Amino acid sequence: MKTLKIIFSCCLISSTAFSFAQDGKDLFAINCKYCHSIGNGTVVGPDLKNVEKKYSEADLIRWIKSSQTVIKSGDKTGNGLFEQFNEIIMPNQALSDAKIKSVIAYIKTQSENPVVTANAVSQQAPTATPKQSALTVILSTFKYYLIAIAIFFLTIIWVLVRVINKLSKALSEEYEKKTVATKIS
Ligand code: HEC
Description:
The protein has 8 helices and no strands. By secondary structure, it is mainly α. The site of heme C has 25 residues, from helix 2, helix 3 and helix 5.
């Protein structure tokens, strides 16, 4: 019974750890991937491989929430990077501390043991531009919305077609009645 309990709690812990990493992966894909890679070099912003070793978690959270506030405060986080990256402003990320922590956890796991991802594929094909990858990010994010919108419009079209059919049937019946009436009179 005791071993069963241990096995059960291990499963629980590993599954929550997994969902944590999954969450971080999705958050990274939606919010950061457009500008950052993990181990595949500069995109718009710097490569984030091992960035969690460079700063404390608290510093990273402050930076990710508002990099300009950190830069203006004279803090050493991201020191000189703003100038180096042609003063491109990293937009403030409206994410909770917990979400940023799961992104950092994802960056950490990816830095330690990178799996074969879309990034690795784009490394094989150096012609892939950031614009293309942004498009794929957008498409993969909004895929379900697009499908839902398509179903919505198809339903509307179906309803309209039925209404048009009904109306034209009613009209032709009306027309027939009238022609019969004029014939009789
Ligand atoms: C619009 C592009 C853009 C997006 C989106 C973006 N960043 Fe950045 N990031 C940058 C740029 C550019 C820099 C370099 C510093 C600067 O110019 O302010 C940077 C710097 C950083 C740094 C400091 C890196 C170092 O080596 O010191 C971290 C950490 C970071 N970003 C994390 C993130 C995370 C996490 C996300 C997603 C939640 C994210 N960024 C989203 C553009 C972006």
